[in-house]
Amino acid sequence: MREFMAITKALSDPNRVRILLALRRGELCVCQITALFDFAPSTISKHLSILHHARLILSRKSERWVYYRLPEKTAPVAVREALDWVHKSLAKTDETKADANKLKKILNTDLAVICRRQKC
Amino acid sequence: MREFMAITKALSDPNRVRILLALRRGELCVCQITALFDFAPSTISKHLSILHHARLILSRKSERWVYYRLPEKTAPVAVREALDWVHKSLAKTDETKADANKLKKILNTDLAVICRRQKC
DNA sequence: TTGTCATTTCGTCGTTTGACGAAATAACAA
DNA sequence: TTGTTATTTCGTCAAACGACGAAATGACAA
User: Fold this and answer.
1) Measured CA to C1', what is the nucleotide nearest B15?
2) Per-residue pLDDT tens digits for B99-117
3) Residue A100: which CATH number?
4) Distance C29 C1' – B68 CA (angstroms)
Protein backbone atom coordinates (compact mmCIF):
# COMPACT_ATOMS: atom_id res chain seq x y z
CA MET A 1 0.00 0.00 0.00
CA ARG A 2 2.82 2.42 0.87
CA GLU A 3 4.46 1.92 -2.52
CA PHE A 4 1.15 2.26 -4.31
CA MET A 5 0.39 5.52 -2.55
CA ALA A 6 3.83 6.86 -3.45
CA ILE A 7 2.80 6.35 -7.06
CA THR A 8 -0.65 7.92 -6.79
CA LYS A 9 0.73 10.89 -4.87
CA ALA A 10 3.43 11.34 -7.50
CA LEU A 11 0.75 11.28 -10.20
CA SER A 12 -1.49 13.76 -8.39
CA ASP A 13 0.40 16.79 -9.67
CA PRO A 14 -0.12 17.71 -13.34
CA ASN A 15 3.43 18.95 -13.82
CA ARG A 16 4.85 15.62 -12.69
CA VAL A 17 2.54 13.86 -15.14
CA ARG A 18 3.80 16.16 -17.88
CA ILE A 19 7.36 15.18 -17.02
CA LEU A 20 6.49 11.49 -17.39
CA LEU A 21 4.93 12.17 -20.78
CA ALA A 22 7.94 14.19 -21.89
CA LEU A 23 10.22 11.26 -21.08
CA ARG A 24 8.34 8.87 -23.39
CA ARG A 25 10.69 9.57 -26.33
CA GLY A 26 13.84 8.99 -24.29
CA GLU A 27 15.92 10.28 -21.44
CA LEU A 28 16.31 13.99 -20.69
CA CYS A 29 18.70 15.91 -18.50
CA VAL A 30 17.38 18.16 -15.74
CA CYS A 31 18.31 21.21 -17.78
CA GLN A 32 16.12 20.11 -20.65
CA ILE A 33 13.19 19.30 -18.41
CA THR A 34 13.55 22.65 -16.69
CA ALA A 35 13.60 24.39 -20.06
CA LEU A 36 10.29 22.72 -20.90
CA PHE A 37 8.58 24.26 -17.87
CA ASP A 38 8.39 27.77 -16.47
CA PHE A 39 9.66 26.74 -13.07
CA ALA A 40 12.79 27.24 -11.04
CA PRO A 41 15.36 24.42 -11.24
CA SER A 42 14.82 23.66 -7.56
CA THR A 43 11.13 23.10 -8.20
CA ILE A 44 11.82 20.70 -11.06
CA SER A 45 14.41 18.91 -8.98
CA LYS A 46 11.86 18.33 -6.23
CA HIS A 47 9.32 16.97 -8.72
CA LEU A 48 11.94 14.63 -10.14
CA SER A 49 12.84 13.40 -6.69
CA ILE A 50 9.19 12.59 -5.95
CA LEU A 51 8.84 10.69 -9.23
CA HIS A 52 12.11 8.90 -8.54
CA HIS A 53 11.07 7.97 -5.03
CA ALA A 54 7.92 6.38 -6.47
CA ARG A 55 10.20 4.50 -8.90
CA LEU A 56 8.38 6.04 -11.85
CA ILE A 57 11.71 7.28 -13.27
CA LEU A 58 15.36 6.26 -13.13
CA SER A 59 18.42 8.50 -13.16
CA ARG A 60 22.02 8.36 -14.25
CA LYS A 61 24.82 10.87 -14.03
CA SER A 62 27.08 11.58 -17.01
CA GLU A 63 29.69 14.31 -17.31
CA ARG A 64 28.19 17.32 -15.67
CA TRP A 65 24.55 16.40 -16.22
CA VAL A 66 21.95 14.19 -14.57
CA TYR A 67 19.63 12.32 -16.89
CA TYR A 68 16.22 10.92 -16.04
CA ARG A 69 14.36 8.24 -17.97
CA LEU A 70 11.35 5.93 -17.71
CA PRO A 71 12.14 2.52 -16.22
CA GLU A 72 12.61 -0.59 -18.35
CA LYS A 73 10.64 -3.79 -18.08
CA THR A 74 12.46 -4.56 -14.87
CA ALA A 75 10.20 -2.07 -13.07
CA PRO A 76 7.56 -3.31 -10.59
CA VAL A 77 4.22 -4.23 -12.16
CA ALA A 78 2.37 -1.43 -10.38
CA VAL A 79 4.81 1.08 -11.84
CA ARG A 80 4.58 -0.25 -15.37
CA GLU A 81 0.81 -0.31 -15.30
CA ALA A 82 0.69 3.21 -13.91
CA LEU A 83 2.90 4.48 -16.73
CA ASP A 84 0.86 2.60 -19.35
CA TRP A 85 -2.28 4.14 -17.94
CA VAL A 86 -0.83 7.66 -18.01
CA HIS A 87 0.35 7.31 -21.57
CA LYS A 88 -2.81 5.69 -22.86
CA SER A 89 -4.96 8.35 -21.18
CA LEU A 90 -3.02 11.44 -22.14
CA ALA A 91 -0.74 10.78 -25.14
CA LYS A 92 -3.22 12.32 -27.54
CA THR A 93 -4.19 15.45 -25.62
CA ASP A 94 -3.38 18.93 -26.92
CA GLU A 95 -1.29 19.70 -23.86
CA THR A 96 0.91 16.66 -24.41
CA LYS A 97 1.36 17.55 -28.08
CA ALA A 98 2.27 21.12 -27.21
CA ASP A 99 4.90 19.90 -24.78
CA ALA A 100 6.22 17.48 -27.39
CA ASN A 101 6.62 20.33 -29.86
CA LYS A 102 8.42 22.53 -27.39
CA LEU A 103 10.61 19.57 -26.47
CA LYS A 104 11.57 19.07 -30.09
CA LYS A 105 13.04 22.57 -30.21
CA ILE A 106 14.88 22.00 -26.96
CA LEU A 107 16.42 18.79 -28.28
CA ASN A 108 17.72 20.70 -31.31
CA THR A 109 19.68 23.03 -29.07
CA ASP A 110 23.05 22.27 -27.52
CA LEU A 111 22.82 21.16 -23.90
CA ALA A 112 25.34 23.67 -22.62
CA VAL A 113 23.43 26.52 -24.23
CA ILE A 114 20.14 25.43 -22.68
CA CYS A 115 21.63 25.24 -19.21
CA ARG A 116 23.34 28.60 -19.31
CA ARG A 117 20.18 30.18 -20.64
CA GLN A 118 18.42 29.50 -17.34
CA LYS A 119 21.28 30.17 -14.91
CA CYS A 120 20.97 26.82 -13.21
CA MET B 1 -6.12 16.22 -18.64
CA ARG B 2 -8.57 17.79 -16.17
CA GLU B 3 -10.54 14.55 -15.93
CA PHE B 4 -7.39 12.51 -15.58
CA MET B 5 -6.12 14.71 -12.76
CA ALA B 6 -9.48 14.40 -11.00
CA ILE B 7 -8.83 10.66 -10.95
CA THR B 8 -5.22 10.83 -9.76
CA LYS B 9 -6.10 13.35 -7.06
CA ALA B 10 -8.96 11.12 -5.92
CA LEU B 11 -6.56 8.17 -5.74
CA SER B 12 -3.90 10.12 -3.83
CA ASP B 13 -5.57 9.58 -0.46
CA PRO B 14 -5.29 6.08 1.04
CA ASN B 15 -8.73 6.19 2.65
CA ARG B 16 -10.38 6.90 -0.69
CA VAL B 17 -8.49 3.96 -2.18
CA ARG B 18 -9.74 1.79 0.68
CA ILE B 19 -13.29 2.87 -0.12
CA LEU B 20 -12.86 1.78 -3.74
CA LEU B 21 -11.54 -1.60 -2.63
CA ALA B 22 -14.40 -2.02 -0.19
CA LEU B 23 -16.91 -1.46 -2.98
CA ARG B 24 -15.51 -4.33 -5.07
CA ARG B 25 -18.03 -6.82 -3.67
CA GLY B 26 -21.02 -4.60 -4.32
CA GLU B 27 -22.69 -1.36 -3.38
CA LEU B 28 -22.62 0.02 0.15
CA CYS B 29 -24.59 2.75 1.85
CA VAL B 30 -22.81 5.70 3.45
CA CYS B 31 -23.57 4.31 6.89
CA GLN B 32 -21.78 1.07 6.13
CA ILE B 33 -18.76 2.80 4.67
CA THR B 34 -18.61 5.11 7.68
CA ALA B 35 -18.78 2.09 9.99
CA LEU B 36 -15.75 0.63 8.21
CA PHE B 37 -13.64 3.69 9.03
CA ASP B 38 -12.94 5.62 12.20
CA PHE B 39 -14.00 8.92 10.71
CA ALA B 40 -16.87 11.33 11.13
CA PRO B 41 -19.73 10.93 8.62
CA SER B 42 -18.95 14.35 7.17
CA THR B 43 -15.41 13.25 6.40
CA ILE B 44 -16.59 10.10 4.63
CA SER B 45 -19.17 12.14 2.73
CA LYS B 46 -16.46 14.45 1.45
CA HIS B 47 -14.30 11.51 0.34
CA LEU B 48 -17.27 9.99 -1.48
CA SER B 49 -17.99 13.27 -3.21
CA ILE B 50 -14.40 13.46 -4.47
CA LEU B 51 -14.54 9.89 -5.78
CA HIS B 52 -17.91 10.61 -7.35
CA HIS B 53 -16.67 13.80 -8.98
CA ALA B 54 -13.85 11.79 -10.57
CA ARG B 55 -16.53 9.32 -11.77
CA LEU B 56 -14.82 6.50 -9.91
CA ILE B 57 -18.11 5.69 -8.15
CA LEU B 58 -21.82 6.05 -8.85
CA SER B 59 -24.61 6.73 -6.38
CA ARG B 60 -28.28 6.01 -5.98
CA LYS B 61 -30.77 6.96 -3.33
CA SER B 62 -33.20 4.41 -1.92
CA GLU B 63 -35.51 4.86 1.05
CA ARG B 64 -33.57 6.82 3.58
CA TRP B 65 -30.12 5.71 2.45
CA VAL B 66 -27.63 6.69 -0.24
CA TYR B 67 -25.76 3.83 -1.86
CA TYR B 68 -22.45 4.07 -3.69
CA ARG B 69 -21.04 1.53 -6.13
CA LEU B 70 -18.31 1.07 -8.70
CA PRO B 71 -19.31 2.05 -12.25
CA GLU B 72 -20.32 -0.50 -14.88
CA LYS B 73 -18.66 -1.01 -18.23
CA THR B 74 -20.27 2.21 -19.42
CA ALA B 75 -17.60 4.15 -17.49
CA PRO B 76 -14.90 6.08 -19.38
CA VAL B 77 -11.82 4.04 -20.30
CA ALA B 78 -9.53 6.06 -18.03
CA VAL B 79 -11.81 5.31 -15.09
CA ARG B 80 -12.05 1.59 -15.79
CA GLU B 81 -8.30 1.26 -16.20
CA ALA B 82 -7.68 3.19 -13.00
CA LEU B 83 -9.99 0.88 -11.06
CA ASP B 84 -8.41 -2.22 -12.61
CA TRP B 85 -5.00 -0.91 -11.65
CA VAL B 86 -6.07 -0.24 -8.05
CA HIS B 87 -7.58 -3.67 -7.67
CA LYS B 88 -4.74 -5.53 -9.30
CA SER B 89 -2.18 -3.67 -7.18
CA LEU B 90 -3.89 -3.89 -3.81
CA ALA B 91 -6.46 -6.69 -3.73
CA LYS B 92 -4.07 -9.06 -2.00
CA THR B 93 -2.61 -6.77 0.63
CA ASP B 94 -3.15 -7.35 4.34
CA GLU B 95 -4.84 -4.00 4.75
CA THR B 96 -7.40 -4.81 2.07
CA LYS B 97 -8.08 -8.20 3.62
CA ALA B 98 -8.54 -6.65 7.05
CA ASP B 99 -11.05 -4.19 5.64
CA ALA B 100 -12.85 -7.03 3.86
CA ASN B 101 -13.17 -8.93 7.13
CA LYS B 102 -14.50 -5.94 9.00
CA LEU B 103 -16.90 -5.30 6.15
CA LYS B 104 -18.23 -8.84 6.38
CA LYS B 105 -19.32 -8.19 9.96
CA ILE B 106 -20.91 -4.91 8.98
CA LEU B 107 -22.90 -6.57 6.23
CA ASN B 108 -24.25 -9.08 8.73
CA THR B 109 -25.78 -6.28 10.79
CA ASP B 110 -29.05 -4.52 10.09
CA LEU B 111 -28.58 -1.18 8.33
CA ALA B 112 -30.70 0.78 10.79
CA VAL B 113 -28.65 -0.55 13.70
CA ILE B 114 -25.36 0.43 12.07
CA CYS B 115 -26.53 3.94 11.39
CA ARG B 116 -27.89 4.61 14.84
CA ARG B 117 -24.69 3.24 16.36
CA GLN B 118 -22.73 6.19 14.97
CA LYS B 119 -25.24 8.99 15.43
CA CYS B 120 -25.11 10.04 11.82
C1' DT C 1 43.86 23.98 -5.71
C1' DT C 2 40.50 27.11 -7.20
C1' DG C 3 36.66 28.37 -9.85
C1' DT C 4 32.64 27.20 -12.52
C1' DC C 5 28.45 25.16 -13.21
C1' DA C 6 24.46 21.53 -12.91
C1' DT C 7 21.84 19.86 -9.49
C1' DT C 8 20.02 19.24 -4.84
C1' DT C 9 18.83 20.65 -0.20
C1' DC C 10 16.92 23.87 2.97
C1' DG C 11 13.87 27.39 4.88
C1' DT C 12 9.98 30.26 3.90
C1' DC C 13 5.49 31.48 2.32
C1' DG C 14 0.86 31.15 0.49
C1' DT C 15 -2.52 27.51 -0.95
C1' DT C 16 -4.68 23.12 -0.67
C1' DT C 17 -6.03 19.17 1.86
C1' DG C 18 -8.20 16.30 5.27
C1' DA C 19 -10.03 16.15 9.65
C1' DC C 20 -13.83 17.82 12.75
C1' DG C 21 -18.43 19.53 14.64
C1' DA C 22 -22.40 22.39 13.81
C1' DA C 23 -25.92 23.56 10.88
C1' DA C 24 -28.59 22.69 6.59
C1' DT C 25 -31.13 19.49 3.74
C1' DA C 26 -34.13 15.91 2.34
C1' DA C 27 -36.93 11.98 3.03
C1' DC C 28 -39.58 9.08 5.83
C1' DA C 29 -42.60 8.21 10.26
C1' DA C 30 -45.81 9.61 13.47
C1' DT D 1 -47.69 19.07 10.27
C1' DT D 2 -43.84 17.86 13.24
C1' DG D 3 -40.11 15.10 14.56
C1' DT D 4 -36.55 11.84 13.32
C1' DT D 5 -32.77 10.41 10.81
C1' DA D 6 -29.24 9.80 6.87
C1' DT D 7 -26.46 12.59 4.38
C1' DT D 8 -24.31 16.87 2.80
C1' DT D 9 -22.58 21.51 3.28
C1' DC D 10 -20.04 24.95 5.70
C1' DG D 11 -16.47 27.05 8.55
C1' DT D 12 -12.36 26.15 11.10
C1' DC D 13 -7.91 24.38 12.06
C1' DA D 14 -3.54 21.87 11.66
C1' DA D 15 -0.70 19.51 8.39
C1' DA D 16 0.97 18.77 3.75
C1' DC D 17 2.08 20.68 -0.70
C1' DG D 18 4.15 23.38 -4.39
C1' DA D 19 6.43 27.39 -5.48
C1' DC D 20 10.62 30.26 -4.70
C1' DG D 21 15.57 31.92 -3.76
C1' DA D 22 19.72 31.13 -1.19
C1' DA D 23 23.05 28.07 0.15
C1' DA D 24 25.22 23.43 -0.17
C1' DT D 25 27.03 19.73 -2.94
C1' DG D 26 29.73 17.46 -6.27
C1' DA D 27 32.03 17.03 -10.63
C1' DC D 28 34.72 18.94 -14.21
C1' DA D 29 38.07 22.73 -16.11
C1' DA D 30 41.70 25.76 -15.49
Assistant:
1) C18
2) 999 999 999 987 777 766 6
3) 1.10.10.10
4) 25
